[in-house]
Amino acid sequence: MLRAQCIARHLTAAPLANDARHLAAAPLATATATASATASAARSALLSRLDAEVQAIRDAGTYKTERVLKSMQGPVINVVGRSAPVINLCANNYLGLAGDKRVVNAAIGSLHERGFGLSSVRFICGTTDHHRELENRIARFHGTEVRSSVTRAS
Questions:
Q1: CA–CA separation, 5 and 3 (whole Å)
Q2: Listed ranges 1-15, 44-58, 86-100, 115-129; the one with the highest mean pLDDT
Q3: Distance (Å, rounded) from C-alpha 146 to C-alpha 132?
Q4: 99 — alpha (psi -120 to 50), left (phi > 0) or beta?
Q5: Beta bridge partners of 152
Q6: Which three-class secondary structure state does DSSP give residue 87?
Q7: Residue 47: which residues within 8 A CB-CB, separation 6 or more?
């Protein structure tokens, strides 16, 4: 199911049948049934509109499906549903560092030393000495004052 359809269905869902408001009085039950029918019609109209918009995007050739990688990120990747490797020209891994053994080993060492991050942004949990050291080195390199450059650690 498309994400937009899930959201639309959640936002326009009818009240639950065992909702305490249904026990109050018949007029309230009638109003609830009317509201439920209105919500159902609005939901149906919204889903129809979303389906039409998605179909227009498909017809235009601009609908993007998600590739599922079954290999390390790099210039050539293996993708679910393809028997042959695929040339990958769209990654931010243009320096090829995501799979570099030195980077991988450094990441493993960091995981063993510090765990998997701070579990929140630095303004809540604090920052690490590694981040502070990186910011100092970047500032010295550029000849500027230290700025917070790593705002998310996990």
A1: 5
A2: 44-58
A3: 9
A4: alpha
A5: 121
A6: strand
A7: 5, 8, 9
What lies within 8 Å, CB to CB, of 43 at 6+ separation is 8, 9, 12, 13
Structure tokens at 48: 């129809």
- Locate the domains of the chain by residue range: 3-59
Q: Note the residue count of the chain.
A: 154
- CA 129-133-135 angle, 5° bins: 115
Q: In the chain, what is the straight-line distance between the N-terminal and C-terminal CA atoms, in Å? A: 29
pLDDT digits (tens, 9 = 90+) for 42-56: 999 999 999 999 999
CB-count exposure of residue 148 (10 Å: 0-12, 13-18, 19+): exposed
- Tell me the pTM: 0.47
CA-based torsion, 80, 85, 89, 95: positive or negative? positive
Q: Please name every residue paired with 69 in a beta bridge, in sequence order, or none if there are none.
A: 79
